[in-house]
From TrEMBL:
Its main location: Golgi. It comes from Trichonephila inaurata madagascariensis. Its EC number is 2.4.1.-. GO terms for cellular component: Golgi membrane. It is a single-pass type II membrane protein. Transmembrane segments: none annotated. Belongs to the glycosyltransferase 31 family. Keywords: Glycosyltransferase, Golgi apparatus, Membrane, Signal-anchor, Transferase, Transmembrane, Transmembrane helix. The gene is B3GALT5_3. This is Hexosyltransferase.
Amino acid sequence: MGIFSTRSERNYKNSFVVGRSKIPKVQQRVELEAEQNGDIVALEIVDTYSNLTAKHLAGLRWGLKNCPGSSFIMKADDDVLVDVRRAIKVLKSSFSGNILACRIVPEGTSPRRSGKWMVTRQDYPFQEYPEYCSGLTYFGALPTIAKIYEAATSGKCLTSGLTMFL
């Protein structure tokens, strides 16, 4: 998750939202990274696929609380490479107001009913998803992120590893 202001090209902060590891040596390295660089948002939940929604919401909450003067919050998965300077340049020149910039997945995508990324019929009983914003990477103005956070914490969320708000 990146928190940044568009007022200056150098005015941004990278933060990594991390849950607890079940492996003591890994947990020690995470704690050392947090101490040395101050870039870890450490959660008291185990870092598992099924906790992604809770981890995502904790990251949004942290950004809203700790970076109130920021122009945007960027969320990116750990396997995504982002050219932050270019992203800031595009955001400064192309967007204003309450925006959410993301890749739109068209309606009609079917839920996976088996495997690692499965969504149970109990969690989502419908045959197809409506149009939605891919969670791989997105940028949102703080007021927009605040609305997403409010809606997500007051409604029903899927807990099968997907960060989806119903």
